[in-house]
Amino acid sequence: MKQRNFLSRIGLIGLGASVLFLLSCDDRVPHDSALDYSISMHTAAVAYDANNDEVAIGEDLKGNATLTKVTVTLLDNNGTAASGRTIAFSAQQNGNPVGSFDPVEVVTNAVGQAVSYFADNDHSGDITLKASLNADTKITQTITIIDTAVTTVWPYYLNMSASNSTIQVDNGQTWSDVTALVTNRRGFPIPGLAVRFTLNPPDIGVLSAETVLTDSAGKATVRFEDTGNVDHVGTAAIQARFAHPLFGTLTDSVQVSIASPVNYVLTANAIPVAIDLASGDRINVGEDVAGPDAYTLIVATLKDQNGNPVAGQLLSFSPTVLGAPSGSLDIYSTATNSDGLASVLFEDGGAAVDNPGTPTYEGVVVLVQLNEDIQSSARFNVYAGETDVWPYRIILSTDTDVIQLDNGATKAQITARLLNRANRPLPNLEIAFNASLGFIAESAITDSTGSVVTDFTDLGNPEDVGISTIQVAFDHPSFGSVSDSLLISIEDPSFSGTPAYIEIPPSNPNRIMVVGGGGRESTTIKAEVYDENGVLVDSPTLVTFTLGPNVPEGANLNNAGISDTAYTVNGVASVSLNSGTRPGPVRVTASVELSDGSTITATRDNQAIIVTGPAYYIFPDTDPTSLEPIGGGMYRMEVAAMVYDLWFNPVADTTGVYWTLEPSPLDSDSILQAFVEGVSFTGNENLSGQTYSGVAFSTVVYPSRDIFSIGRLTAMCFGGDIDGDGVYGDSVVASVENDVMMPFFAGNLLVTVNPAFWDFTTMSANPNAPTPAPITITATLTDFYNNPVEHGHLMFAATGASDLQPPNPVETDANGQATVVGIFDPGICIPQPNTDPQLYQDFTATVTVTLIDPIMITSEPVEILFIRSPIIP
Predict the structure, then answer these.
(1) Gap between the Cα atoms of 354 and 392, Å rounded
(2) Which of 250, 449, 265 is nearest to 370 (CA)?
(3) Quick check: bond before 774 cis, omega within 30?
(4) Dihedral (Cα; 494, 498, 501, 502), 10-degree rounding
(5) Owning domain of residue 55
(6) How many domains in the chain?
(7) Rounded distance, CA 701 to CA 728, Å?
(8) Of 172, 280, 601, 654, which shows the fewest CB atoms inside 10 Å?
(9) Are 531 and 629 in contact (CB under 8 A)?
(10) Mean pLDDT over each residue of the chain, to the nearest integer
């Protein structure tokens, strides 16, 4: 478990990375080197622990509890260490001497180095350090001393990671690099810190080092390996520790498992694939072709000696042709997953086809390696182009042309074989089947001979009797489709063909309008003739249809009167029922005269109803929740109109409704580019595929720029003689109440603040009387297509703000933006009791913005940090 120690917070001022880097290593060559010598300076912040041992830390703090260690290196003009030379140290701030060095003069040692320690003596800020051999050989460097009363530097953070969570007992063939990352309070890496690593149990493995200095990225890394002892298996806990002499100790740990040695088995397979551009899916194809039409997927499988998949192992993939590197790899995952699989996509560098007549393999070879001892390879050809392999050919055959209607007792064995242009079988490809009657599997995978064998059966459904068309197809994403078909008969062994009874199914629609009513004026009446086994007769049979009694005036069959005849087709006879000038229910009788002179009949009351009630009222409306993007910056919204007769009954289906959309007088600035689908019919389908009596659906299409624009949507149909002038077909018109706003759809609302940090003490003219903080808050509204949205009404919310100007709501401009200024009083930073100097609690304000038209969305919250630094006398 990670352990961190924290000091009380006494303020927060941004601590840039540059502050830390000024105290880190500096190996720059100086500009003022003498002719005979070169001189360089390295600085590092240090402190002393309880044992008086020197410890590198992240920064030099005001006061002499921390020091800056200065190391000067002196070389002669041959690059040789210059020993025995006296180096003088001094420091200045703003041109005045400051602090002290101990010692002030140091004689260089055998490696040409002189070391002294600088104490700031309670000074802070930028200080220039100087080291001199003489007037010509000298160097300066500026450091920054941190005043902790103003800037908080603690806590540091220590986080550990391991490159492999599992290693093997294999004498170091597998290992895990364990890394400790140390960052400061602001997340910047701290170099030069001594991180100590320990192992528990201590003898389970080997660490490459006990103590490691963090590098420029703040990382200290050790390598963890096994001991080679097969008894040393289990879980090792590796802990990293850094002790700051002044502030506390950081620790973190990571676990690495040591597994027993195993014998791995690695296999590699090459799978030709093409990319379906519509879905982005990979589809297995017959072969790889040079260029983007096809690729090869290399799938490697790693298992242990017991056949179990091995996860978390990195594999290398190396494609070659005749021993030379070829093509490139699109990496999916080179680390084995939980199934032991890793895969890459090979993108060819040109054609490479093996010649079987030569001992050399001229195709592509992809070598897959775990290490030098565990490897495998996949071989395959890359053909020059489409014409080398395409078109494919698919051959469909059956062992019988006839099966019985016996619920699957008899079957037809269907065989499909897929070959390429060179008649080479194509294995492992999915081909699709379809049957117009009966049942066959939707798809199957070809075997090594390119073949698929499947069964075609009936399902016991009498409607399946007849001739079924069996189709098979393969779709190549790049080249096209190939298909074949055959016919199989499904016969009913009990079929006699003699009419036994008649059924009249319901008509659809079963309500039609009188002539001139403005709706549909005819429907179809059917008679189904069955034999004694309930099977439709297959021979043409004459059926007589008769209306009545009490036929509505003018109603007729096929415009021939109240009686007419028709022959069956596949057992079904049909006639057309036409309305007249009067309403009422229609009764129909169907009869068949048999060969022995007898007659079978069927009668159905209310087979259809002829209705009156032309349109008298129309009520249009919109559905913003049905809004959807349709591409090209366009949106589609569903609209509907309810159409009633004088008595508020829904009018007959298929009544025409005509739509218009124009700019609304309520939006005088609008230049509306939207349009409405102009013609619809009552009873038509909505976008969900549903229908409702008396309701006509249409759609409005509009671009991004019309969002929040207002249009006048009008629906019109033709009714009866509404004005009483004796002429039918008067107009029935209505517009959507309050007009229609083009709604907003699922876009983005982004909020930014400037500034995101405010110190009432340092950012006010008078720290003792701090002034309110003005924070600029900007919201940007974009739609689904990332286009800016104008005229959106936004509500700004900011915790702690005493005022927002301008007040809510605020309308977005042509760039989709709206801006307010939030005023935050100093009182939001609450004084902490019993502190001297007076300390204040930090305050974090949260800012959100909500779109209130008419589909609401709310932005992700943005935070503003307010502090009130203590005033130091």
Answers:
(1) 21
(2) 265
(3) no
(4) 110
(5) 38-145
(6) 7
(7) 33
(8) 280
(9) no
(10) 88
